[in-house]
Amino acid sequence: MTTGAAKIKPLNKAALFLPYQEQWIKDRSRLKLMEKARQIGLSWSTAYAADERTAEAGAKWDQWISSRDDLQARLVIEDCKMFAKVLQLAAEDLGERVIDEERKISAYVLHFANGRRIHSMSSNPDAQAGKRGGRILDEFALHPDPRKLWAIAYPGITWGGNMEVISTHRGSANFFNLLIREIREHGNPKKISLHRVTLQDALDQGFLWKLQQSLPDDHEVKGMTEPEYFDLIKAGCADEESFQQEYMCMPADDASAFLEYDLIAGCEYGQAEVWEWNGLIEARPKGRLFAGLDIGRKKDLTVLWVLELLGDVLHTRMVVELKNMSKPDQEKVLWPILASLDRCCLDYTGLGIGWGDDAQKQFGEYRVELVTFTPRVKEALAYPVRGRMEDKKLRIPYRPAIRADLRAVTKETTAAGNIRFTAERSENGHADRFWALALAVHAASTPATEYAYYPVTDKDMRAGHQINTTAGFGRVHGAW
User: I need a labelling partner for 394 at 20 to 30 A (CA). Which of 23, 53, 80, 356 fits?
Assistant: First the structure.
């Protein structure tokens, strides 16, 4: 096996860890925090340190690890088991154990010969309540409520142990970033030991060389130098904001975006959750299905977003994305799905005009509602998405491209005082996924109507037309 084309090699090639990992492992501060790039081995080295602390002679405290979801909790305990073997520590895998009968909370448990244990749990903050010992809060910013998680976990180290927080950023308003700003800008009152490792930092310390040792000879990364690998990772991100946040420790600016990262993350499915419908009639979800269809062809995507209404919560069941396809080819994909839905709202702007006419002929005016995008209509469509996210009544997939589209939408106030929603066009479209979602939410929320903006005059009012001007546009119920 070849060693790879990396130019920067660790000073000690035989060492198990790179310098930034070793510094993190050796830091025994009561409170420590790591802002990091993705996939550079920090969670892995944290598992090693947890084993080392828990198994040592005279250890007094168990370790309580909080992960983003159940799948990640299992992966963490697998890393702990692997290091227990490497270190030749006597450890027994107890599997999943109930740790709180009343709240139905369980954890994956690794039991060491000295009686101490590592408990790996998903993100429920209540799981931390009443437990004493060390805390590891992994992917902290991704938790639905990081502030609450800190508030419940922190008292657990009152009688001993330390608390470690590890995460990439999730927006400037996230509690994770507020902790970092408190450290850097306000004198560090909590006395937190801060570590920071970007992708560039990791590459400068031999990360690519280490990575290439584990890859097969035919892997494309094997022949890359550090600048080439950096460019590869950057090109693969959904957009520049995603790259800066996920790999360069630069939190996205929540002040300019319509949807904060915390809002989005709080509505995302866990990695292990099964949510997607395959479109087959025999597998159709039992609840009512609603969809939004945003039309594109060359520059933008055509996106169909399908929601199932269960109780008062809308669950995403399908997101179809089409690009560089003719209208007939797109219809072959979309029409069978639309035939299974209760209602669909369709973008009736530009290319969408022809689509809307054909869809209503095919499925009827009740099942297909036509929406003409104007600034006021966009405003009325956007706010219900945000409202459902705030109320936790919307579930969406955990996908970088979707997150990038939701983040791309910005709210601006014009010189005339009007609200305008915009999004920069990128290789991934023009926030097409957001508008498909907004149309789907609207389809689930209102009876069928045709959308356009009409000025309401005194003549109209005298004529007795029933007009609802809520949110700045007219819904026409009578003859016009």
Answer: 356
- Which residue is associated with the tokens 């269960």? 310
Structure tokens at 170: 């999730």
Q: How many Å is the maximal CA-CA distance in the chain?
A: 88
Work out the number of other CB atoms within 10 angstroms of the CB of residue 286: 7
Spatial neighbors of 143 by CB under 8 A, at least 6 apart, are: 66, 68, 123, 125, 137, 149, 265
CA distance 140 to 142: 5
Write down the residue that tokens 């909080």 correspond to: 66
Between CA 258 and CA 438 the distance in angstroms is 13
Contacts of 126 (CB under 8 A, 6+ apart): 100, 103, 105, 152
Tell me, yes or no, if the pTM score tops 0.70: no
Tokens of residue 453, six digits = 């903006």
Using CB atoms within 10 A of its CB, is residue 458 exposed (0-12), middle (13-18) or buried (19+)? exposed
Alpha helices in 303-457 (DSSP H): 327-338, 352-363, 375-390, 400-408, 432-445
**In this structure, what DSSP letter does residue 114 have?**
T
Per-residue pLDDT of the chain (480 residues; tens, 9 = 90+): 678 899 999 989 999 999 999 999 999 999 999 999 999 999 889 999 999 999 988 899 999 999 877 888 888 999 999 999 888 888 898 988 887 777 778 889 999 999 999 999 876 777 777 788 999 999 999 887 899 999 999 999 999 999 999 999 988 889 999 999 999 999 999 999 999 999 999 999 999 999 999 999 999 999 999 999 999 999 998 888 889 999 999 998 887 788 988 889 889 998 778 999 998 888 999 999 999 999 886 667 899 999 999 999 999 999 999 988 889 999 999 999 999 999 999 999 888 899 999 999 999 988 999 999 888 888 889 999 999 999 999 999 988 889 889 988 887 665 555 656 766 544 555 789 999 999 999 999 865 444 444 444 444 434 443 333 333 333 322 222
| DSSP letter for each residue of 80-100 | HHHHHHHTT--EEEEEEEEEE
Query: Contact 67/120 with Cβ under 8 angstroms?
Result: yes
147's CB contacts (< 8 A; 6+ apart) are 175
